[in-house]
Description:
alpha+beta; Rossmann fold
Amino acid sequence: MRTLREEIERRRTFAIISHPDAGKTTLTEKFLLYGGAIQLAGTVKGKKNTKHAVSDWMEIEKQRGISVTSSVLQFEYRDFCINILDTPGHQDFSEDTYRTLMAADSAVMVIDGSKGVEEQTRKLFKVCGMRHIPVFTFINKMDREAKDPYELMEEIEAELGIKTCAINWPIGSGKRFKGVYERETQKVLRFQGVNGTREAEVIEADLNDTSLADVLEEELYLKLKDDVELLDGASEPFDLEAVRRGELSPVCFGSALTNFGVEPFLNHFLDMTTSPLPRYSGDDLVDPFSEDFSGFVFKIQANMNKAHRDRMAFVRICSGKFEKGMEVFHVQGNKKMKLNQSKQLMAQDRETVEEAYAGDIIGIFDPGVFSIGDTICLAKHKVQFDGIPTFAPEHFLRVRQKDSMKRKQFVKGIMQIAQEGAIQIFQEPQGGMDEVIVGAVGVLQFDVLEYRLKNEYGVDILTTPLSYQFIRWIDNEGVDPHQYNLSSDTKIVQDLKGRYLLLFSNAWGINWATQHNADLQLSEFSR
Ligand code: G4P
């Protein structure tokens, strides 16, 4: 039996981010394979493939081959209990990624070695930078023709603004990929291209021993010698504290598909990361090792499984131990509640959790009371974790249901989806719910909305895109915004709490509004 401290100490909770197709799903599956969490990693999802990765569960994801939602997977490896938080790769879901990062203590960033830093990695990384969490880089697909490794490292440094430190170094790439050189142990892990081999051949690599040239090819051997000399002399020194502050990213090269370099990466990662970190409640840090349970909701999802038709709130446990059936205090609702229906999520399958510890993620049944960012804790020891900011929507759509007989389902569906935080709903002043304006951070959210309304609520919708790009809440209390002098393309709407907002087509419109209405107070976020 482990003590509470031992259980928490062995936890590692990280998010995995990448541009779509860089190999995030493949890497995740190989991780799980080491932990024995799944029998067979399965063929990695392909766009037309019928087999799908375990972390993908929504139809739309399967159809498009992108990850739309984030899911949570737990597995054991060595003596660690590891929680992987999968994130949607597409930038349109960067808000979801941000929330997931709020629940993680570190991030793994997967980069395609042939492509380098891609547009969406840049965006997601920016989100990561907002959290200052340690970032570990896996440069994938070295079995394919890759960019020069120095160039890749420089690109990461220049584009993402984080220093890098190579933990291993690739020897060739593509057809001539021979393996990697482990800098610390000075060993060569030899790539033999065997798909799924668990252990790579390890060669003690004395770089002065020219017989290594026979194994690696003369040219690659000489290049490796030069590279290692250069790296030892010129590259950023390894500094664990800088890694933990999120200022230096350790970089490993490998090939997830052929399972090469995955296990060493996982081991490096585990050795460099820490157990669950304390979180702020106001000015105080909540100690994860405290006996008292606490956690916060970072994600809400309805209808994850059609057979269940329920709503789950994903909770990151921040301190103490969770036990099934325990009574907790929901801070924002100011109410005690019993957590009977708690689940651990393994993609489609859910297992009831009996107990969980700081660092773990549990899914709890949500009867419609939770909002993103809410705290649950023990009534005898109340804390309140800092909230999770919402991103301002940048895309807007007018939406109404095709069949007016379906009004009830339409309202229920759109409200529930909005509560999950993927979209925001606005109304014409004094307008009803028959026609609404929906705002989202990325346009793909609209496809998801349409798909889900149809599939989960049986409602077909008619949509009209609107050209607004900016949103501002009116902070002035009790005013009729129609009294303001606004440009003709500025639209007045209300949110579901009745607060007035303005939608602008461009930044110029915002300037106009503030310049022509001295007392008008606008804010980017709702209060
Ligand atoms: P993602 O979750 O980041 O979107 O990427 P995913 O793991 O689904 O991988 C995207 C594609 O890249 C997959 O191909 C996968 O097999 C391939 N891949 C992943 N890791 C490696 C690697 O180390 N080497 C090579 N050569 N390929 C890798 P796919 O979807 O089956 O087919 P396609 O998209 O290439 O048509």
